[in-house]
Amino acid sequence: MAFDEKSHFLSLGWCVAGFREDGEAKVTESYEYDLIGVTVHTGTADGGHYYSFIRDIVNPHAYKNNKWYLFNDAEVKPFDSAQLASECFGGEMTTKTYDSVTDKFMDFSFEKTHSAYMLFYKRVDLEEENGKDFNFDVSPDLLEWIWHDNMQFLQDKNIFEHTYFGFMWQLCSSIPSTLPDPKAVSLMTAKLSTSFVLETFIHSKEKPTMLQWIELLTKQFNNSQAACEWFLDRMADDNWWPMQILIKCPNQIVRQMFQRLCIHVIQRLRPVHAHLYLQPGMEDGSDDMDGPVEDIGSRSCVTRFVKTLLSIMEHGVKPHSKHLTEYFAFLYEFAKMGEEESQFLLSLQAISIMVHFYMGTKGPENPQVEVLSEEEGEEEDEEEDILSLAEEKYRPAALEKMIALIALLVEQSRSERHLTLSQSDMAALTGGKGFPFLFQHIRDGINIRQTCNLIFSLCRYNNRLAEHIVSMLFTSIAKLTPEAANPFFKLLTMLMEFAGGPPGMPSFASFILQRIWEVIEYNPSQCLDWLAVQTPRNKLAHSWVLQNMENWVERFLLAHNYPRVRTSAAYLLVSLIPSNSFRQMFRSTRSLHLPTRELPLSPDTTVVLHQVYNLLLGLLGRAKLYVDASVHGTTKLVQYFSFMTYCLISKTEKLMFSGYFMDLWNLFQPKLSEPAIATNHNKQALLSFWYNVCVDCPENVRLVVQNPVVTKNIAFNYILADHDDQEVVLFNRGMLPAYYGILRMCCEQSPAFTRQLASHQNIQWAFKNLTPHASQYPGAVEELFNLMQLFVAQRADMREEELEDVKQFKKTTISCYLRCLDGRSCWTTLISAFRVLLENDEDRLLVVFNRGLILMTESFNTLHMMYHEATACHVTGDLVELLSIFLSVLKATRPYLQRKDVKQALIQWQERIDFAHKLLTLLNSYSPPELRNACLDVLKELVLLSPHDFLHTLVPFLQHNHCTYHHSNIPMSFGPYLPCRENIKLMGAKNNIRPPRPELNMCLLPSMVESSKGKDEVYDRMLLDYFLSYHQFIHLLCRVAINCEKFTDTLVKLSVLIAYEGLPLHLALFPKLWTELCQSQSVLAKTCVKLLCDDPAFSEYIKCILMDERMFLNNNVAYSFLTYFLHKVQVLSGPSCSNLISVLVTNLLSEQSSLQPELAAHRLELSKTSGLLNADLRALVLLLSVQPPQAIDPALCPALQELLGRCRVCVQQRSVLELEAKDHKAKAEDEGATPVKRRRVSSDDDRAGDTAAPPCVASTSSSSILPPCSELRPDHQEALTPTSTSDTETRDSSSLIDPGTEQDPPSPDPAPASSGNLDSSPKEEKMEASSSSSSSSFSSSSSLLQEAFVQGEEPDPPRCVAMGEGPREEGRGEAMMSVSSEEVKEEKETAAKTSSSLAPPLSEDATFPSALGLVGEGSEGCSGHTPQVFPSAGPPPDMLDMLYRTVEATIAIVTKLSVKDPPSS
Fold this sequence. Notes:
Elements: E1 2-3, E2 9-12, E3 31-44, E4 47-55, H1 60-64, E5 68-72, E6 75-79, H2 84-88, E7 92-99, E8 104-111, E9 114-124, H3 140-159, H4 162-173, H5 182-199, H6 210-223, H7 225-237, H8 240-248, H9 252-273, H10 301-315, H11 325-335, H12 339-347, H13 350-359, H14 382-386, H15 400-412, E10 414-415, E11 418-419, H16 423-430, H17 436-443, H18 448-459, H19 463-479, H20 486-497, H21 508-519, H22 524-537, H23 539-547, H24 549-558, H25 563-575, H26 580-587, H27 603-618, H28 620-623, H29 629-632, H30 638-646, H31 651-656, H32 661-668, H33 681-694, H34 698-705, H35 708-713, H36 726-749, H37 751-758, H38 761-769, H39 778-792, H40 800-820, H41 827-837, H42 841-849, H43 852-867, H44 876-893, H45 900-908, H46 912-920, H47 929-945, H48 947-967, H49 1017-1043, H50 1049-1061, H51 1069-1079, H52 1083-1094, H53 1096-1107, H54 1116-1125, H55 1134-1151, H56 1163-1186, H57 1196-1232, H58 1235-1252, H59 1269-1272, H60 1285-1291, H61 1331-1348, H62 1372-1375, H63 1381-1397, H64 1439-1458
Antiparallel strand pairs: 1-2, 2-3, 3-4, 3-9, 4-5, 5-6, 7-8, 10-11
Helix pairs in contact: 4-5, 5-6, 5-7, 6-7, 6-9, 7-9, 7-10, 9-11, 11-15, 13-16, 15-18, 18-20, 19-20, 19-21, 20-22, 22-23, 22-25, 24-25, 30-33, 33-36, 34-36, 36-37, 36-39, 39-41, 40-41, 41-44, 42-44, 43-44, 44-47, 47-48, 47-49, 48-50, 49-50, 50-53, 51-52, 51-54, 55-56, 56-64, 57-64, 60-63
């Protein structure tokens, strides 16, 4: 199938064919098809566009004229069919593009994006004449040629048969030894084998047995001297074999085989023929080498063969043939055999022959042999006929052996101090103007190493000739192009490297160095590069270049017009430093060089470096001659300053600059700083050097700040901020960091300069025009913000006017940023600037007044969008920093809410609601904890700032979100930050790094909890850390709503849902809140309690506590909550309650024996066992007080009495162990303490005794059993119970309703520490945080407690009761402030620390210090970051103490029920 570009038809000659059923072939038909349409696709495999070229087939005239149209969507236009191929075939296309480096238009090739996708053809109707028979007339000569060609083919086919080859092998290799005249037979066999191999075998395409044939020939020649002589005589008389095999054969292996075979034959004959080589020319004993050449060597077949080969060179082969390598290799190997062979070649004037062959065949007068280059000689290499030595790029590598042979013969002709070459040979080598033979083959790059040896041989004891040859080399370098001069520099390198050697060798190094400056003007770059290579290798060259620096450094490093020359001069300077690492690091750097830090140099190396560096510093004064951009351009000083920067090894080099500072300044200002040049690379290089010379060198910085002229003008520097011009951007990216770095170092040295620079207009311009483009100028922006930090820094000794300047700078800069920044794209600048500038509330209010909240919201919206893209994971840190700035601004705003300007600014911030919603969508397990916490902190501040707006919008959204997850089957996606136990694999969905969409997902369903509370302490802590802040936020919403009288039904439902979700965490935030509401007598509180009790989820919450989370009852807040609400809500039906009581009694009967005295030595086990029993007993007490059963299990009372006894034993055993441990510790301290230390320890013990025994109200029923509080826990530190998590949970909102006054409920006749209650408070409906609200909780809870227990029968066990009134918070806004994140973190750490050592792994809130606590507790539950309200209370009791008191209370209730007098509910 063929496609013709011109006629566009497809020929299908044989594709329509088939077979009949009877097996006869159908008649073959031929058709022609015209191309009538092409569909083209442009683009890639991923996408693109289709269009078509269609031929007009409707109009016959247009069809005949090949009329085409382009159809491209709505565009239809005529199309030139001649362009069809270029438009439809893919591949590459070439265009011209301008290259700024070479200043030329270069060819640029690229892959086409359009190519034909589908072709459409139309079959052409056959005309009648197509079916006629055609007669062709063939000439007789052509028929004859065809006949002979066919005959030759048949003959070759028979000759090159494998069977014929096998027959010849058997014939030649199996000659029987019984034949007569074995020598004659051996000769005949060798002749037959040689003729077959050389004339037939080597011409076959496949030669699998070639090695065996060569071995056979070698063996036959070894056995027959006559065969060797015949072989050489045959080739001496007829040169067909050498010509066809050694020269013309394109197969290198065959040529090498033939060359080695000839050498082997000659070595076989050498012992017999060597003495005949020089006969008859040497028979008379004369040494005349100029005699008749044709008579020499006529007596030996060896020499006759060699003469034949030389004659081929004279008459039959081109010097630029590809296949002369083996030819000259044979002559070279022959010459190396011995002195006879080399003398024979010299007597034949072989040197002249080879030189004339190489030089004299350039003219057309000599006929040449065409050399075949294709396999089997079937095609002729046309390149062989047209190649010429005159071409500059031609390198005849095949002649390398010829140069080696000439060098060998010249050296063999040496006789002591003279060469015995003939006059013709000497003239051929050194004759002619400019040594034409040497020049030509050096230029051709033929075996430069042997050329060097040839020059050495010619110039020994001949200094004059050496000077002339060196002169020729430099003359050639001056005339040739840099590329053509490369072989000459290579030869110069070899001549310079020569050291030692035979005597009489001229000093080529001195000759070369003396002449180098003569040609450096013609080819400066190559000469300098060559010197840079020679300097480290040659001591003479190094010394000479170093001593002549003044003659060439300025000339080539500064003044020369070509950048390549200046770069070469810099490399030459580097090469002068005798350190390999120093040189390598300079050459490997592509951009402006940086100082070579931590590069140890030897003393000698340092001396040379300082010599070079001093010379360069001295040129600073003259450098101003080359800075005029209109004359010298903008790059002449780049390499100069680059190398000086690189020389800054240590502070020594930096201090050497001090004396030249004014030269540098005069160079910079005004000739570099003021001209309006967008990209002045001289300035960039100068500033880079100046910056690096000042780094870690305050002496050089002081040169700037102590010079008033410099400080006045250094800020004036022309900078073009064209952010769309990539060249300008790249230039500024390199120049500006150094410039602003210099200014920064000056500001660090001089406060006066800092104040002067801060008020400069160019600095404000830089802040406005450069810092918004941090991605384009990262280094410069970093230095500018460092400057900004110095501008706003305040010192203790600053005067009032200086402080005012700082204040004014901040005000100006903040206003500038708020005006010019685009929040959607410049969030990085906004964050960096505000992090520096916003230091106090005045600064933050300035942001608020100038629409800064709107600007930051725009930045947040952009980051929020980018955060939810899979490829934009890097903005998390920016989001956290931006939110921290938001938080600081909002906090600073809240105290000034009454000001009109603040209110107006907040009203203008219309995006605040949408902002809050987007913050909520970042609360999920895909966000890292720092981002979630930052969002929650800002949300809390927003709620406190504008409670009405956010309660109205956020509460319904939150309630709907949680209800959706609770009441629907929507699958939840979990991110990588959801807490997970280490022994459980992550879910499959956790592999994602981004949520499917922005969503709020802080719901904790029971199915998500992997282990119940207390089983895995690490997992419990992770879960608490994850959810606590969010629950505190919802808790804050509730308390703010109460203060605002906005505690709606929706918020009630939300609080119940959140409380229910917090049950696995044992969070007591909402139980505490609801308890306080229940205690209040306000209308709002009563309404809220009613809504709460009517919510079905609330009863489910209480039921879940009693059924599944009874360990939560160890938390006093939770226990107190149930004492208030259990009788208000119908939780369990009668049968269910009875069943639960039975289960609890059964558990008690089975578990009470686990409390053994031996556990007193194992604090954790004791606490765990006590917690389990205490939780079940508390649940039992609650159920008995609400719905007592008809009958009590008779085994319950004895079990309780037994458990009470076990508690006494454990308490006593533990007290004994603790006293022993304390005595042992005190004894050890006394033994190792000094007298002063002993006195201090003693006083501490006394002080501890004072505080460990607070006044207690003793119980008559247990005074003889339970020791006082001080005796229970004599060691204050060891008596600490775990810090309650609920304490941490409530502190963030403790100032709203309950300021933290959490204490035991009063005894039956309590004496309140302060009068008044919630009802008598003048702000009872607002539920303000005050001491009265705290103290009133005791009176309200006392009556409930008395109803829950048997009245008057069993008073409470001894407990420490003390009350104090915390400081009242003034102002509504201040009262609603939550505790800081640092406080929460510290409390979490305290809780973790204590729980890991003392607490049972049951509940984080085991001994929560509640305002409604039912057991004794001390001041530790109230300590921390809230005000101390129990200053004299003792240490709180642990789980064992709580269990003891709970058992007593349970015994009282069970005893009452047993006498048929159940308590009233």
